[in-house]
Each structure stands twice: as C-alpha cells, then as structure tokens.
Amino acid sequence: MKPDFSKMNGLLTTVVVDVNTKAVLMVAWMNEESFQKTLASGETWFWSRSRKELWHKGATSGNTQRVVSMTLDCDGDTLLVTVDPKGPACHTGRSSCFFNPIELTKEGNLNDTTES
Hints:
One of its GO terms (cellular component) is cytoplasm. The chain is mainly beta. It has a domain at 8-85: Roll (Ubiquitin-like (UB roll)), CATH 3.10.20. It is built from 1 helix and 6 strands. It has one helix at residues 32-41; strands at 12-18, 24-30, 45-48, 53-56, 65-72, 78-85. A 4-stranded mixed sheet has the order 2-1-6-5. The longest helix is centred in the N-terminal third of the chain and has 10 residues, at 32-41. The protein is globular and about 50 Å long. It starts with 11 loop residues before the first strand and ends in a 31-residue tail after the last strand.
C-alpha cells in the first residue's frame, strides 16, 4: 500500500513511536517529498506547516530518529513511524512531546478549571 497524498492538502499525519519504550514521541506532518527523503535517508523528515519548509529531525539539535519501521493506516492517510531516537524528541528537551496531562473528574469527565 502507498500513502494517499491526495487528502489533507498533500499531508500525512505522522505518529512517531520509540521502538524500545513504545512511547508516542511526537506527531508531525509528512508531504510526499519528506516521505521520500525519510525512505532514502533512513531518518525522519517532516513538513513544517508553520514555516512551509522541509525539516530533518535533529538537523540542528543532533537528536535524530533512525527509522525502524513505517506502517500506514487502513485509509493510507496516517503514518505510524517506529524509530530509534538519538536524544529527546521534543524541542523542550523532554523525551516525548506528550507531557501535559488533562485533569479528569472521578466520573471521567474533563475537570473544567476555567472561571465563569
């Protein structure tokens, strides 16, 4: 199966997972060019929606991600990339970009902490 770049303005949602810990490290976007660069280099490349340019993960920080496997979802528009990370995935220096918990009530609802 090949990625379907005809959806979502030519972008694939890309979920990056650590091969050893199985932790979700980050979510980013790939276009066809970054997908091809990832395949050719064996390291992750993404498309920056804000800067409108390709970026090689770790190009400036040294925190590269060696690709171990890539799997498409059933629709071909979301990519799961398993990597061996060489350092933290998050620009904050944390291993994962997912570290901000959402509080839930005992009933499992969101705890609304906003003031009325």
